[in-house]
Each structure stands twice: as C-alpha cells, then as structure tokens.
C-alpha cells in the first residue's frame, strides 16, 4: 500500500551545494529531428535568449491549465528519474500534479533493473512496464519544474535550453532550497486553486534563493547512478530520492 508523504515521518535531506551556472562543455540539447533528444554531450540547438527571456519558471501551456508538470532527468531513465517520477505521481495521485522522466543516454533495449523494481514495489509502485525515453527539448519546455539527478545533467539541459534556468535544479538542490523558502504551502484540496500557477510561484521563490542559501563544500549534491552496482546502492539511492521528494511535498502542499 502506498503511504502518502504527509503520513510518513520526516527525514532530513542532505542536499549539498547549490550548483553554479552550467558550461557549454558539460552537455547540450540536440534538437535534431526526429529524436529531438537531449544528450550528455552534443551541439547546442537553441540559441541563447536575451536576459529578459530568463523570467522563468514558465512552461508552454499544454493539457489541463491547472496541472503542475514536473520532469525528472537522469542518465538511462531506468533507475533514478523513473523512480522519482512515478513516486511523485503516486504521492500526488489526488491532486493535479503530473511527473514524467527521461534520460540523456538511453538504451532502448535496457529495462528497469530488478533492484529498482523491488524498491518501487516496496513503495506500492509498479515499474515493470516502463521503457526508457530520451529527454527532449519539448519535455523541458512544457515542464513547470525540471529536476535532475546530477549537476552534470542539469548543465546538459541548460546548455541548450538556457531559458529553463529558473525552473531547473538537481533534486537535492531543490529540496534544500524548498527548506529555506518563505512560502505558505498550497492548499491542494481547494477546488479553485490554479495549482500550476501556485506551484510555479514556489519554484520562482526557490530559484530566487539560490545565491542566499550558501554552499557546503563537504556536502554532495548529486544522486549517484546505481546501475550495475550492488543492491545496497540501489536501496540507498531509492531512499535518497523518496526522502527528497517527501521533503519537497511537505513544503509545497498542505
């Protein structure tokens, strides 16, 4: 049975430093048809916007006007990002929040590892039907919030979609910023609440505090890739993801 985040004990999140601006050498979006995919390395496809264009977080309006869209990014889209997305979907099943995920270096022939299937199943989530999807420019554009597993992946997104700066964070970075945000949680039960607008305001508040939070050189901001590692690493990564998402949800909603 899935236990809602507000009924689970709170756990601290060690989220590490706020990443600096990405460099083009750390990755880019490849906007070449038909894949329109984002890779860890590649030529940028989208010209840099003017300073005025960085007034995000904004998302291209698609689907339900009040739906808040979150997009998770990792490498292969079979471990970290898919678990994060489907965990968030399960945790917010009764409110209009929708999460999707993609990878920067996917292999369509690779499925979700058994250890991730087990970690998801233990939390009431079935990932057996998942197939890896490549990150696309469209997916980044349509999201209200983009959360990556690592700083390198954050940089890969921003190298070619720089106007997504104010809505793109590592998962642990955003959890850390959420803790410091001066924010009244959204009443997710309110029938008249425009959730996408309210949550985007939270994202903007978090983004505005990047430079105020400070940095801890001894803390780790990435979530390591557990692929092909020992079962204990998978379990640790799964717990790290769940704790960070629970922490964010407690700050954003009531």
UniProtKB/TrEMBL annotation:
Signal peptide: none annotated. SMART domains: LMWPc. Residues 15-27 have a biased composition (Polar residues). It comes from the Bacteria. Residues 1-60 are annotated as: Disordered. Residues 68-251 form the Phosphotyrosine protein phosphatase I domain. This is Phosphotyrosine protein phosphatase I domain-containing protein.
């Amino acid at each position: 049975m899935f236990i809602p985040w507000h009924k689970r004990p709170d756990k601290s999140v060690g989220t590490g430093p706020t990443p600096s601006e990405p460099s083009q050498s750390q990755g880019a979006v490849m906007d070449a048809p038909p894949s329109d995919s984002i890779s860890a390395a590649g030529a940028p496809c989208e010209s840099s916007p003017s300073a005025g264009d960085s007034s995000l977080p904004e998302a291209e309006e698609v689907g339900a006007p009040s739906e808040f869209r979150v997009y998770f990014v990792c490498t292969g889209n079979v471990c970290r990002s898919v678990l994060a997305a489907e965990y968030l979907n399960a945790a917010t099943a009764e409110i209009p929040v929708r999460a999707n995920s993609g990878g920067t270096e996917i292999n369509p022939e690779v499925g979700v590892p058994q250890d991730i299937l087990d970690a998801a199943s233990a939390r009431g989530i079935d990932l057996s039907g998942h197939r890896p999807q490549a990150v696309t420019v469209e997916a980044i554009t349509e999201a209200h919030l983009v959360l990556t597993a690592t700083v390198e992946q954050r940089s890969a997104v921003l190298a070619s979609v720089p106007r997504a700066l104010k809505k793109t964070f590592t998962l642990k970075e955003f959890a850390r910023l959420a803790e410091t945000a001066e924010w009244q949680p959204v009443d997710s039960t309110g029938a008249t609440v425009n959730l996408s607008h309210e949550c985007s305001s939270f994202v903007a508040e978090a983004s505005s505090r990047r430079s105020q939070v400070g940095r801890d050189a001894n803390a780790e901001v990435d979530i390591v890739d557990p692929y092909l590692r020992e079962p204990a690493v998978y379990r640790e990564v799964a717990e790290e993801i769940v704790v960070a998402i629970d922490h964010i949800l407690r700050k954003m909603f009531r």
